[in-house]
Structure formats: C-alpha cells, structure tokens
C-alpha cells in the first residue's frame, strides 16, 4: 500500500508504510517462510527445489533494499543463512557482507545506464 502526498506546487511524494522496513516485520515474515520451507522439506522435495524456494522466499526478502538497510541489520538477519543450512533447507552458503557489496555494486551499475530511472539523480 503506497501513500501519495501532493505539495502546493503539485510535486508528488510517495510514502511507504514504515512496517515494511522494520527488522521485526522482516523477522516475522522470514520466520513464517522458514516454517513453510520446513513443511515443504517434510514433503520430500529435492534439495534443488528447496534451494530455489529458499532463495525466492527468504534471500530475496532480505536482499530487497539491502543497500539502504545494511546498517540496520540485526544479528538475526546474519544468522538466517546459517539457519537455512542447519535445517537442511538449503545447501547454499551466503555471506551477508558479500551480498551487501554485490547489491551496492549492482545498483551502481544500473544507475550508470542512462535508461535507468535513477540515472538523472547521479551527480556526474
């Protein structure tokens, strides 16, 4: 749900709800998705399918806006990836520092493209 505000000069501001960015909200979503993945594991899905599901349901949620939120990550966010391996939901290993660096680099490369919507905001 997005809120749109208009100023007297008709400039538009989009406001995202605060709960989308809090660690508690991400924690509750990731916990629910771990439960879902554990149920899928009990259905004897292959590790290949569990890897894809883990990446789609959990990693994508943490990596979303990771560049902006990297300073606010709690220790729980760091341990999510270890927990996935411990529960045998995934055999992939992730390093949160590498993910932060990669997402920052990807965003920088996208902004370099003149077609990208953020390219007009770059200082050079």
Detailed description of the structure:
It contains five helices and two strands, in the order E-E-H-H-H-H-H. A hairpin with a 5-residue loop joins strand 1 and strand 2 (12-15). With 124 residues, it is mostly helical. Helix 1 packs antiparallel against helix 2, helix 1 runs parallel beside helix 4 (75-86) and helix 2 runs antiparallel to helix 4 (75-86). The longest helix is centred in the first third of the chain and has 20 residues, at 23-42. Helix content is 56%, strand content 6%. The protein has one domain. The chain has a two-stranded antiparallel sheet with strand order 1-2.
Brief digest:
The protein is mainly α and 124 residues long.
Inertia-based shape: elongated
Kindly, what is the distance between the CA atoms of the first and last residues, rounded to a whole number of angstroms? 34 Å
Sheet with the most strands, sense and barrel status: 2 strands, antiparallel
**Strand residue percentage:** 5-15%
**SSE series:** EEHHHHH
Number of strands: 2
Poorly predicted runs are 1-6, 12-19
SSE arrangement:
Blueprint: E1 3-6, E2 12-15, H1 23-42, H2 47-63, H3 66-69, H4 75-86, H5 96-112
Antiparallel strand pairs: 1-2
Helix pairs in contact: 1-2, 1-4, 2-4
Which descriptors apply to this entry?
mainly alpha, elongated, 124 residues, two-stranded antiparallel sheet
């Amino acid at each position: 749900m997005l809120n749109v505000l208009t100023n007297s000069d008709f400039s538009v501001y989009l406001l995202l709800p605060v709960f989308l960015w809090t660690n508690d909200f991400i924690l509750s979503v990731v916990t629910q998705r771990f439960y879902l993945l554990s149920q899928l594991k009990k259905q004897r899905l292959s590790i290949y399918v569990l890897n894809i599901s883990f990446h789609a349901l959990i990693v994508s949620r943490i990596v979303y806006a990771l560049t902006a939120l990297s300073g606010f990550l709690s220790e729980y966010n760091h341990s999510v990836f270890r927990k996935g391996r411990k529960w045998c939901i995934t055999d992939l290993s992730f390093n949160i520092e590498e993910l932060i660096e990669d997402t920052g680099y990807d965003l920088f490369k996208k902004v370099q493209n003149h077609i990208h919507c953020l390219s007009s905001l770059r200082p050079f």
